[in-house]
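Progress note, sequence design subtask.
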């Protein structure tokens, strides 16, 4: 104690405890990477103060806007599974690895984007390019709209999942899920493949044009 000049174990009985000053809380790496026109909202609080977060647009975002790459740890086994998020894998050096994000300091803001339960609420597609995973908007996103993602057609095949995910509110199923067939699908005239949205069909047809 500097007031009485004594070295004490614990608090000074004469002058009392010190006034503790707390350090400023630093946001996690993932939160610091959030673009300025996006925001995180708490959608639900679970046991132990666990927050369920969603990513929302603060202003309008154009169609064909690309985000990424997704940041995560390459792992042969997924250590952090959340049924509301996409499971992502990439090919690296001939091997197939999970993009694992066990905590917010191991990833970027894309780890907060929730999966789309149906094509109406889907705003993003996830796909692999040059060993990285990116998200791209498939429609214009209005302000205050939540960004939700599902696999692009080719990436869905790589992930052994459906190109469309239709899930009821009460359903809880592990990824990759069992999905329903889309109604009135878009059909490729070249190979007969079906797609849930015209945007996915357009993307697929670009592959045929490149091959030609």
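Output:
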């Amino acid at each position: 104690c500097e007031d009485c000049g004594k070295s004490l174990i614990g608090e000074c009985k004469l002058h009392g405890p010190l006034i503790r000053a707390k350090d400023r809380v630093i946001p996690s790496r993932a939160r610091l990477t959030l673009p300025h026109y996006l925001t995180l909202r708490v959608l639900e609080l679970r046991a132990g103060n666990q927050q369920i977060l969603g990513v929302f647009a603060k202003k309008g975002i154009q169609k064909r806007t690309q985000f990424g790459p997704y940041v995560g740890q390459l792992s042969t086994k997924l250590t952090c599974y959340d049924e509301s998020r996409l499971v992502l894998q990439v090919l690296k050096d001939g091997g197939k690895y999970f993009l694992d994000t066990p905590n917010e300091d191991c990833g970027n803001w894309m780890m907060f984007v929730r999966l789309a339960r149906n094509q109406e609420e889907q705003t993003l597609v996830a796909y692999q390019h040059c060993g990285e995973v990116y998200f791209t908007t498939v429609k214009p996103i209005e302000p205050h709209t939540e960004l939700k993602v599902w696999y692009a057609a080719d990436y869905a095949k790589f992930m052994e999942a459906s190109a469309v995910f239709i899930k009821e509110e009460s359903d809880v199923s592990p990824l990759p899920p069992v999905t329903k067939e889309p109604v009135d699908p878009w059909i490729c005239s070249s190979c007969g493949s079906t797609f849930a949205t015209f945007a996915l069909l357009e993307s697929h047809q670009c592959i045929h044009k490149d091959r030609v």
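The domain at 29-159 is CATH 2.170.270.10 (Beta-clip-like). Work on this subtask will continue into the next period as scheduled.
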